[in-house]
Amino acid sequence: MAGAMAAFEKMAGSRKGVPEQRRSRILDAALNLVLKNGLRGTSMEALAAEAQIAKPTLYGYFANKEAVFAAVAERLFDELRAVVEKGLRGKGDLAFRISLALTAKHKRVFCLLEGSPHGEEIYSEKSRIAAEQVQDFEKWLQERIAMALKEGGRDLPQNHAMVLIACAQGIAQKAERAGEIGPAIRLVVEKLLA
């Protein structure tokens, strides 16, 4: 009897992960379709087919495609927070760690959108489809960089953070290759913090 109960619990436990795995598969499919077809060219029907699920199942997870896109954005911003934190907590002096954090963030976005015929559309529409996530992330990023600057003994950490973030953003937007981002951001951070 104990063996049967253990087998049942194992089976039930493995089913608990199914909804999360399916949700993750939906988000992966959504990202792939948006990069391939753009925001307007991605439908719930295409998304269900790409995720290999029934359309009613898709609607069981997300009310509409805007909700799917918001969830994709939320996952991306979680990834970006993780790479920024990793950079800021790395080894090296303050300028190196900040440049590492900003470079990692912008390289991730650049590499994600690179090669997509809809990269510019996706990037320009980010505030429309995920306004709250964008605002929250940008506020968090500025606060996090300012905190690192303050801990490093820098005056006016909020102002410096704002300038560093704006410069990194401009560099990333002008870059033609991902490899250009890091050296340029590093140069600007080092000069501004010198």
Characterise this structure.
This protein has 194 residues and is mostly helical. The chain folds into 2 domains: 62 residues, Arc Repressor Mutant, subunit A (Orthogonal Bundle); 122 residues, Orthogonal Bundle (Tetracycline Repressor, domain 2), CATH 1.10.357. Helix 2 packs across helix 3, helix 4 runs parallel beside helix 8 and helix 9 runs antiparallel to helix 10. The protein is elongated and about 55 Å long. About 6% of the residues have low confidence.
Summarize, please:
The chain has 194 residues and is mostly helical.
pLDDT averaged residue by residue:
88
Q: What is the name of the CATH architecture of the largest domain? A: Orthogonal Bundle
Large-scale geometry: elongated
Structural class determined from secondary elements: mainly alpha
Largest sheet features: none
Rg for CA atoms: 21 Å
Question: What percentage of amino acids are in beta strands?
Answer: under 5%
Low-pLDDT residue intervals, each spanning 5 or more residues: 4-15
In CATH, the topology of the largest domain is named Tetracycline Repressor, domain 2
Termini gap: 71 Å
Helix/strand order, N-terminal first: HHHHHHHHHH
Tally of helical segments: 10
In CATH, what is the class of the largest domain? Answer: Mainly Alpha
Helix content: over 70%
